[in-house]
Amino acid sequence: MTIADRADAPVVGQTFLPRYDDDAAPAVPRASLGRLTADEKFIRIGSVVSGLGLAWLITQRLLPLQGLPWFLIAWFACTLLVTAVTSAMNGGFVEVRDRVAATTVTVGALVVGAVLVSAIVFVVVKGIKPLMHLNFYVDDMAGVGPKDPFDKGGAAHAVIGSLIQVGIAIAITLPLGIGTAVFMSEVGGKFSRIVRTVVEAMTALPSIVAGLFIYTVFIVALGFPRSGLAAALAIGVMMLPIIARAADVVLRVVPGGLREASLALGASRWKTVWYVVLPTARPGLATACILGIARGIGETSPVLLTSGNAQFFVTNPTDGVMNSLPLFIYSTVRSGEPNAIARAFAAASVLMAVVLILFVVARLLARPRKDSSGRWRRRRPAVDLEHSDPLAAMGPVSPAVDTTYRNEDLS
Amino acid sequence: MTTLPAAYPGPDAPVEAVPRKISRKARGADAVFVHGSRAIGATVLVITGGVGLFLGWQAWPTLRHYGLSFFTETAWQPEADVLGIAAVLTGTVMVALVAMTIAFPLALMTALYISEYAPAFIRSTLVSMVDLMAAVPSIIWGLWGYFLIMPRAAELAVWMDRNFGWIPFFDVKNADPDSALIEASISSYSFSMFCAGIAVAMMVLPMSCAVMRQVFSQTPPGEKEAALALGATKWGMIRSVVLPFGRGGIIGGTMLGLGRALGETIAVLLILSPSFEAKWRVLEIGGNTVSALIAGRFGDASKSQLSALLAAGFVLFVITLIVNTIAAMIVNRSRSGVGTDA
After folding, report:
1. Is residue A174 a part of any domain in this protein?
2. Smallest Cβ distance to A298: which of B137, B202, B320?
3. Would you say B192 and B98 are in contact if contact means Cβ atoms under 8 Å apart?
4. Residues A192 and A341 in one domain
5. Where along chain B do its domains lie?
6. Which of A6, A134, A202, B333 ranks highest by number of CB atoms within 10 Å?
7. Which residues from chain A sit within 8 angstroms of residue B149, using beta carbons?
8. Which of B44, B125, B128, B270 to mutate to test the interface with A (most CBs of A within 10 A)?
9. Exposed/middle/buried for B20, CB within 10 Å: 0-12, 13-18, 19+?
10. Domain with A94 in it
11. A114 and A203 share one domain
């Protein structure tokens, strides 16, 4: 029964509301392209579960394979097998390959995630005892032996040493690194190409060689003692090409149209850089710098050669030996005493926490800003982190760059 | 009616047409900016280039003194005037190879998972986690490898020696994997290049993964959709579109990781027990790398020994530089990356 053959058919020109048709067939939901159907879901989850059961049977009952690693490997193998069998029941070889590949890729990603989590959890669990004592955060290790209990001694001197050394290194490298990046991307010219080539080449410098360089020049040749300043210089030599290069990549993805608009409105080049380019690239620059700092604070090898190893508070970087967190961890764990090792793990947890905080700050800075009303502001032409990941910028990959605009220097 | 200005000289009067002067020379604040930033660039050039030149200059006397034997001698005995980097160079390469063998498949799978398989709402979290993994200090990976992984890796090494001992890589001298007293000789399987390689792998993995993911994410969506529309499964689409498109990124990211693995110090220093022998047996105790050699020997080095260490460091730097340069060339020449409009 349709509307047309109703008795009260509408007069021409009159509007009417369609009536609900009680006899119509129930609405069929549209076939969804992306979502799994119920039995597909069952097959996927069921394969994993039956793999778990088979793995238990094989490792615990049939074969003499003890230990968690064998169980996990068996679980993975059984899951793959069951997945292959179940998909072969419904489809052909193509389906089997698709499912097996999907399972393998997922498991690979899971392994990497498990590794990261295991590293963090392991370090914190092994170092939990010293971490429970307040003196660990406020004391130094002066007069504390490796066998002494945890209510004596702490790692505060190493934390302070790390902060001072990295602070000096940043004070040197940040202006130089960002200045060089501005020079390479905004001024241009033949000379900047030479600078870029050399800076990119020097990102390959192994950190230990940077330490050896400072050791040879600053300590052996010039005769200065081992000190926090030397360590800061070694970290700086290591960080400078990394930060310069990452900042350069971030600046290069600032849209050329913005620069052109600013110049066309009559701004000078300096004002264009200061009011347009740098503010646009600010989140990306911050991320690049903070990741560079995280790298600098965690690097042990340059510090190992240059700073010496003080067991007490040192706040003057030019005044002889100093300690830092990575060096403290390394030298403490080398002593081999169980208590010392626990202390090293506690210091490693502190180092991890510092890196984590820096990392979260970097991510927050890289986000687009929110309005006070909580609604997203009109998207600023900010640097796209998907395409200028500062992490990848430390390597040889440069994002696609708009090369139509280059501020070539003719002078 | 129009009126002409009184002073109008008439159409035939000579006009002095002087073109406006146009100069691209920076003036005022611009000049300060241009020259200032050029000065900063020159400073950085001097610093970074100086390090490279200094290394080469310091390495030269050693390389000349020992000649080609610097690359073929395995011993490091400065007192006897016999030293070479054959052993440490082999160790460096083997540790890096072990690391890449482990890191490459994991990095590739993680990158594929993040760019293709992961649900959209956790994708950015996963990207952050990979970045976080890259920020984990190397000393922490060293501790992780030494205390958590090495006991298990030693058991795995025993098993591999037992079953694959006929492959020269997996052979272990001075130890019988089938003996009943295997617990006593387990130390022959610890402190090996294999164990060090696992820790180094976790350091280089996130860097390779980030490069691969970035290239995968630049795959043209039209081509992916075309493959799916023609009936390809997801894996078929990945194999026919994503992997060929990202080949440059895969190779480049791997080589970039290799460059990092070659220079890794502290995890190797912590795990590997030093020995001066050029060997391929990765499961066996002992080995050395260039960076661990520098870290272990700099303290008691005289002037000439320091020069030899600097020469070893210079060789390491040159190798890393070559690897990185090739990686950059591969990434940039492939379809993805700089210089394409796709």
Report:
1. yes
2. B137
3. no
4. yes
5. 69-333
6. A202
7. none
8. B44
9. exposed
10. 38-126
11. no
What is the per-residue pLDDT for B240? 92
Looking at the fold, whether A305 and A266 belong to one and the same domain comes out as yes
Give the tens place of pLDDT for each residue, A106-154.
999 999 999 999 999 999 999 888 888 888 888 887 777 777 777 787 8
Closest chain B CA to residue A205 = B317
CA A118 to CA A115: how far, in whole Å? 5
Query: Residues 4 to 63 of A: which have CB under 8 A from any B CB?
Result: none
Distance between CA atoms of residues B178 and B268, nearest Å = 29
In a domain, A47, yes or no: yes
Between the alpha carbon of residue B107 and those of residues A246, B116, B209, B292, the distances in Å are 22, 14, 5, 26
Q: At the topology level of CATH, where does B69-333 sit? A: MetI-like fold (1.10.3720)
Which amino acid is present at B264?
A: E
Residue B87 in tokens: 């052993």
pTM: 0.81
Number of domains in chain A: 2
Q: Is the pLDDT of residue A403 over 70?
A: no
User: Do residue A81 and residue A200 come from a single domain?
Assistant: no
> Cβ atoms within 10 A of the Cβ of B258, count?
24
Question: What six digits make up the tokens of B33?
Answer: 């900016």
Note the pLDDT tens digit of each residue in B259-312: 889 988 888 888 888 888 777 787 888 888 888 888 888 877 777 788 888 888
In chain A, the residue whose alpha carbon lies closest to the alpha carbon of B335 is A400
- Looking at the domain assignment, is residue A142 inside a domain? no
Residue of A nearest to B291 (CA): A208
Task: Give the separation between CA A221 and CA A285, rounded to whole angstroms.
Answer: 36
